[in-house]
Amino acid sequence: MSVKVEVSARTQAARLQAASGGPTSFVRKYIFSTDHKVIGIQYYFLALAAVIAGVILSAFMRLHLAWPGLQVFGGTMKPETYEALLTMHGTLMVFFVLTVAPQGGFGNYLLPIQIGAPEMAFPRLNMLSFWITFLAFACMISAFFVPGGAPLSGWTAYAPLSSLGQVTGPGEGLGQTMWLVSIGLFCVATLLGALNFISTTIDMRAPGMTLLRMPLTVWAWFVTAILSLLSFAVLLAAAIMLLLDRLAGTSFFVPAGIVVSGKLQAHSGGSPLLWQHLFWFFGHPEVYITILPAMGVTSHVLSIFSRKPVFGYRAMVSATCAIGVLGFLLWGHHMFVSGMSPYSAFAFSMATLAIGVPSAIKTFNWLGTLWRGKIQFTTAMLFALGFVSVFVTGGLSGLFLAQPAVDSLLHGTYYVVAHFHLVMSMAAIFGIFAATYLWFPKMFGRMMNETLGKVHFWFTFVGAYLIFVPMHFVGLAGGVRRYADFTAVPYLWSLQPLQRFITWAALVTASAQLLFFWNLFRSLRHGEKAVRNPWRATTLEWITSSPPPHDNFAGEYPRVYRGPYEFSVPGASEDFVMQSEGDNV
Amino acid sequence: MSEHPRTSRFDFAGKNGGDGVRLLDASGLVPQRTYVTGMTMALGGILMFFMALVSAYVVRKGMPNSGWIAIPELPRILWLNTCVLVASSVALVFAHARFRAEDDPGFRRWWIVATALGIGFLAGQIIAWRELVERGVYLATNASSSFFYLFTAAHGLHLAGGIVALIWILLHPTRRLTRGTATEVAAMYWHFMDGIWLFLFLVLLVER
Amino acid sequence: MTARVRAQRGVCRNTGHHDPATTWRACGGAAPAAMFAVALTVLVGASVYFFVWGKWNPPAAITPVGNEIDAQYRLTLIVTGAVFILAQLGLAFAILRYRDRGKVAHYSHGNSKLEFVWTFSTAVVFLGLGLLGYKAWGTRRLTPAAPNAVRIEVTTAQFVYYFRYPGPDGKFGSTSPKLIDPATGNPLGIVPGDPAGRDDIVVPTLTVPVNREIELLIRSQDVIHSVFVRELRLQQDSVPGMTVPLHFTPNRTGRYDIVCTQLCGLGHHRMHSYLNVVSRSEYEKFLTQQERLLQQTSSQ
Fold it and tell me: What is residue A28's predicted lDDT score, i.e. its pLDDT?
């Protein structure tokens, strides 16, 4: 099962120290830890804090949209407050939840274990990237409390709204600056994390763990890390330039002759579209950064609980890589009506439709994995099945937006909001939930309550559809997104019954998440003790104890003999064969 | 300063299983090649960062109504700086060769020369800035000067980090990396930043 | 613990397994499978119902290109609808049919031939859809407006629209950002000395003649805004520093809402105007009326 490697005495001693449990002081062990497992959990809890904040913001937004006169905290919501909530909701969710939890959280915790490595390639760098992320989060949250409050330019921060300071809106002063600094820090942290993930995957795999024996989760984290490395570097450059426009009076993104509230601005010759190009060159890969890990988890979970190998493993790997490559070629589909050259729309449109193909391959293979399987409805499995459904629905509505002509109607409406919430946010969240229910026993050594988990699933699954299917119709009718209220335009006000329905659905669904938090925190202390391999799965995280020791394998480093999803192998004594099981077993 | 023979990239996880002697770092957990891989990835990210700046430069300059006024004449000292930086890279190549020949004094000598030339380059860049400031060309004067300062500052910061690393390697025994890996990784970074400067300088000269 | 108690705790264990205390297994119960299948069927049914019902479809298009876009929308709806129904019901079927009934799963790593056919056919369908839909984009965006089109300049600012007609001379007067001053009645900063600008008409709503080609020249004074009229199936950002041309030919009279779809600040939601499509005679009347108004104010 394990392999002894000939190493020097010094190395041997260092390994023994690692295997014996690592540092013992509280600060070294739990706060400034270099253990990827501790860091993974830190990332995960950071994402939980961010998601709680993000959901509360959206609840306030939904309440205000449904009943604009509603008194909360002794007053009705001001439009600038609404837009600040909108900006911060998007920013927190996209960066600090959907980027942090799947990659920083689960990727950190499980990637080294799944490839049989004792540690990340650069443990101290890993710690650094977490703490920079934490700093970025603190900086982002504090934008609420500076004079003028949080910025109101949306998570896309389009210049020149975002680049002229307080004249364009209350949150555009210090709040927007804090926002940019936070994003800059986040970029640095993510870049450091990404190079760590890539190096670990390339160089730290256990003997026998060839590339095509890696679990699909590892492939997903690996490709995601490459996307992060290439795209966040561009966002960092863009953020620095926008910061200079704001603070140093440069004119990268601000054209000449701008008059705001009667005041002529001193800038000259800049290009607002340049910001959009740079932002979306990052922003579109970012969509895949959030969704690829969820796809990996879904493949993993579907295979385990269908007791079947993944259908078309190589096709899945190719599709993941194809999504990675194509993801860089279609940022312009966010800009069909931006004033960009209408000729380039064709190329961006075609590339966008082309990325539907690898997505369709994945869907086909997920169904193929279920086909003739032996499906067991654990909570993790329910969320993975829910992922497939939600991803298909949200993905298909993207085919409308991918065509510039149809986009001329739907761009900037709630149709877009519905589309990206389903295919990116809900799908990614379903992936995070599936991962949580699957790996909680491994990470914390205890089981979560499955009954509560299933109730949580049904509320979330039905709730997601009740919120976002009606939202497509709001958009189809011309309902404009990012409006603080709809009272000014009669036809928008006529859509209010749909808006109220969505708000009710959102409030119920959001409340149902309390079940999840209750389950999570209660199980930490009171859950039933977990065994090594509670789900009878095949990959390397299940050969070690729950939770794993400091060096993951207590000195018994595994050797890999087979692919990651050998379920129901004819002739085997069990319906699963571990990756580390030799042929003689 | 003896080195283990270099192991191939995939030895740790190769098809053959990678049994046998593997070169690990002091933690006993990480193969030395990983530091080279990590640096390669870091350089990939840095390349994207500078490509973003350069493409922004080209787009911004090509805008209709860009109001672009080229800096009348780039400070002449930039040519000298460029030569100094290239010389520094050459010195680092010599240092590396001395290292492989296990000639420690020779290695140290060339390494110090490379570091000193690097510091000289940075000093020269600051002189170039001062010259522009004296001419009244500031960061916000025109997009051309904004980009000039942005390019040189971003590159200079990266290079300053490289100088810290060079000095660190000279003065401290590295803990997790072997000396050989440390010098190799530092040299990769240094040559790469040299190349980035040549590219940026070319852009500033040609796309004026 | 008996099997019944375990089931109550929501977890079925594989009682047949040799070491029940250390293995957890959810059962492939009929209830979750049925619930899932019902949920997906309801999803499919409700989605089809609401899309066919069309209660929230946008009002009928008022341009020929708008009709083309609607046709492309319907084609996309049929294609994606078919894929949606097949995929969701396929998922429902798989969940029902292949739930754990105690039999061993089929050991298979996939089927390359099937994979290839599927990949090829989705590629053809998706890319074909894009090619078909490109015509509607091209007729509006890639061909310039006819020389005799009615030219109207649209200027956006936080949080208003201004529409400028060139007046009898057919020429727009030059503008200067320094002169922008809504308080003194010169919100666009028209240069007073320019004779071409003297007869320019500036109004807060857009009035255009029916069945004539209209070309809008879209500009912005401060941040990015946009012009969206759902009946035109048309949306265009107004970008400071740029003049974006856009043309259309409305074929039905009426009053339509113009709204802003690009986040532009705290008044984004109240940035609103009207597009009045009127008969040719009414349009002439509108112009002469505005010209008279202009003469009155300038003579004062």
Answer: 80
